[in-house]
């Protein structure tokens, strides 16, 4: 949820040193006496050459868990984790890694924090970390000698010529390219292959019939904040055998009107659980909202708690889809 902002593979991190440019998919040459050569990749439509980062900083769970899933905790200078993510961190399969890496701030990402940390590389999303309004953009960081990588999902909102990539493909791209940047290509390939296989298993085992209509509720009383067709929950719901009622919105996360929710008659409400307020309070609000009283989800009591770490773009998206699929089967959908 960008308004503030899995199965875990247990093998040890694999450090892959590229001896030839073709082995890394990068158009570079290497001097064997100088260590790994820089790699050049495309990020949000820009060709960027990266040496191996030595003091990486990650923002929020999406960035942090991509790093952890690739076995890169020991390569990190620290993380910036908004306090609203605290409950979700405690539920993460990477809790040990969270505790091993310094938390630099519990607020939003700022240039002061990463400069003071002497970071050389920052991982975050556009408008979910990087922000022109707050004065922390890839360009501004580059001016002080700090490189960055933006989540491919967030390229949809970046620059004059936004790059639109389906959420699941965006996740695979990030894991693959971060693996290239840190020279752990083998581990990245193993992780992406595992996620692809599990996603395909979900697709091929979906129930017959019309998919359940699902409303992803993040927060909001006067107007609900939800996920559109460019957000990770959209593909999570789809893989599980449901249909996001706002899949037609070309947005990642956005505010909508209650009338649109009511008109869609959701059969299930997936409530995102993080530290903005207790998830039980969110569900009680939805149950008591007069405008939702006649909706099938409220009438039948079909509320599903979606963990924050599964709802943001990250390696737990597939785990989230698997668990939501089990829930839909349990209610006969």
Automatic annotation (TrEMBL):
Keywords from the named record: Signal
Alphabetized SUPFAM superfamilies for the sequence: Helical backbone' metal receptor
Signal sequence residues: 1-26
Domain Fe/B12 periplasmic-binding: 55-333
Cytoplasm found in the keyword field: no
Pfam families: Peripla_BP_2
Signal as UniProt keyword: yes
PANTHER family (UniProt xref): IRON(III) DICITRATE-BINDING PROTEIN (PTHR30535:SF7), VITAMIN B12-BINDING PROTEIN (PTHR30535)
Family of this protein: Belongs to the bacterial solute-binding protein 8 family.
Listed name of the protein: Iron complex transport system substrate-binding protein
Species: Amycolatopsis marina
Top-level taxonomy: Bacteria, Bacillati, Actinomycetota, Actinomycetes, Pseudonocardiales
């Amino acid at each position: 949820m960008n308004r503030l902002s899995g199965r875990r593979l247990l093998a040890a991190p694999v450090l892959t040193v590229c001896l030839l440019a073709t082995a890394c998919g990068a158009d570079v040459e290497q001097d064997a006496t100088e260590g790994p050569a820089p790699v050049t990749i495309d990020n949000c439509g820009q060709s960027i050459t990266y040496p191996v980062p030595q003091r990486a900083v990650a923002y929020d769970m999406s960035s942090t868990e991509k790093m952890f899933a690739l076995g890169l905790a020991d390569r990190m200078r620290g993380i910036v984790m908004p306090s609203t993510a605290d409950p979700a961190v405690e539920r993460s399969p990477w809790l040990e890694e969270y505790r091993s890496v310094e938390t630099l701030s519990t607020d939003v990402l700022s240039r002061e924090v990463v400069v003071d940390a002497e970071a050389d590389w920052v991982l975050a999303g556009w408008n979910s970390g990087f922000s022109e309004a707050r004065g922390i953009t890839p360009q501004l960081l580059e001016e002080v000698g700090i490189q960055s990588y933006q989540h491919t999902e967030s390229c949809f909102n970046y620059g004059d010529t936004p790059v639109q990539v389906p959420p699941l493909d965006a996740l695979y791209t990030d894991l693959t390219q971060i693996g290239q940047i840190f020279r752990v290509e083998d581990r990245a390939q193993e992780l992406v292959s595992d996620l692809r296989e599990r996603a395909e298993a979900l697709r091929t085992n979906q129930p017959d019939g019309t998919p359940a209509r699902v409303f992803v509720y993040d927060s909001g009383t006067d107007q609900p904040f939800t996920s559109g067709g460019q957000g990770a929950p959209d593909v999570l719901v789809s893989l599980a055998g449901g249909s996001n009622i706002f899949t037609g919105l070309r947005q990642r996360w956005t505010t909508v009107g209650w009338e649109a929710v009511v008109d869609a008659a959701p059969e299930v409400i997936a409530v995102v659980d993080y530290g903005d307020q207790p998830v039980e309070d969110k569900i009680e609000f939805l149950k008591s909202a007069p405008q939702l009283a006649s909706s099938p989800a409220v009438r039948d009591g079909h509320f599903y708690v979606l963990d924050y770490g599964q709802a943001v773009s990250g390696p737990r998206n597939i785990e989230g889809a698997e668990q939501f699929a089990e829930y839909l089967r349990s209610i006969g959908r």
